[in-house]
Design a protein that fits this description.
With about 250 residues, this protein is an alpha/beta fold. About 35% of the residues lie in helices and about 15% in strands. It folds into two domains: about 90 residues, no CATH class; about 150 residues, Glycogen Phosphorylase B (Rossmann fold). Strands 7-6-5-8-9-10 form a six-stranded parallel sheet, with helices on both faces. The protein has a two-stranded parallel ribbon with strand order 1-2. Strands 3-4 form a two-stranded parallel sheet. The longest helix has 21 residues.
């Protein structure tokens, strides 16, 4: 079993724990530098259009399969040699969401009625990547201005993996409300933001999970997310009146 850790972020192949060590090989072929690694000769020769055509042919013939949903496993062919998938597009049942959150929050002080405007500003390696970047500061600030108008008197808590950079990006809101910058681990960040009165997310998995939990636990509370994550959330939990996009 060979796991290719492609993309721009290094992730450990957690499914490997279900196999014996001599049955698993991890290929760390991600690139997280600003310049990135040079394209392979195969990619260079085929080009983007050529690669897409080859993938379509392999998928149609059953040699490659996309398994984003559990029921798609039933359509795997005996001759399949590559299985692709991404957890971002899996539908998550309401019961499962509650079970996950209950497990996460076990042993922690949980406040689901916290009176603050929460924002998660994902930065980190996105500041140095060519292929993708953070949600534009101007868009986040615009949504925070709107949140402040709708929730007068509430302070803002900004959670980020790059506190200094986040403070510089969001300077304009300092004069509009009391702002607190929080540097927490992912688990604590999610749990605390779930309890916020109004949530503004950015392009990140943490923001997605915050909204998924809030949609199930804090029904009726406002969640604002980047438009590019709309399809992800619809795939995960369907449409919701509690989620708007910017």
């Amino acid at each position: 079993m060979v796991f290719h850790n492609g993309g721009v972020t290094r992730r450990n192949p957690e499914i490997a724990q279900f196999f014996k060590k001599d049955e698993v090989k991890a290929v760390l072929d991600f690139s997280n530098s600003k310049n990135g690694s040079k394209s392979s000769s195969v990619k260079f020769c085929l080009g983007r259009t050529g690669r897409k055509l080859v993938v379509r042919i392999l998928t149609w013939s059953g040699f490659v399969s996309n398994c984003d949903q559990g029921d798609s496993l039933a359509y795997l062919k005996p001759w399949v040699f590559e299985i692709r998938g991404h957890y971002s597009y899996r539908r998550i049942k309401h019961k499962t969401v509650l079970e996950i959150f209950s497990s996460m929050a076990k042993g922690t002080k949980l406040e689901l009625t916290s009176q603050f405007i929460g924002v998660h500003d994902r930065l980190g390696d996105l500041l140095s990547l060519d292929s993708k970047g953070p949600t534009p500061a101007s868009e986040v600030i615009s949504e925070l201005r709107r949140a402040i108008e709708e929730n007068p008197g509430l302070g803002i808590r900004v959670y980020s993996d790059s506190i200094i950079e986040a403070a510089n990006r969001l300077k304009p809101i300092v004069n509009l409300a009391e702002v607190e910058y929080c540097d927490q681990d992912p688990k604590s960040t999610i749990i605390q933001l779930v309890g916020s009165q109004h949530f503004v997310g950015t392009s990140s998995k943490i923001s997605i999970w915050v909204v998924i939990f809030r949609n199930c636990i804090k029904t009726g509370k406002i969640n604002v997310m980047p438009l590019n994550l709309r399809q992800n959330l619809i795939s995960n939990i369907g449409t919701s009146k509690c989620i708007s996009y910017y």
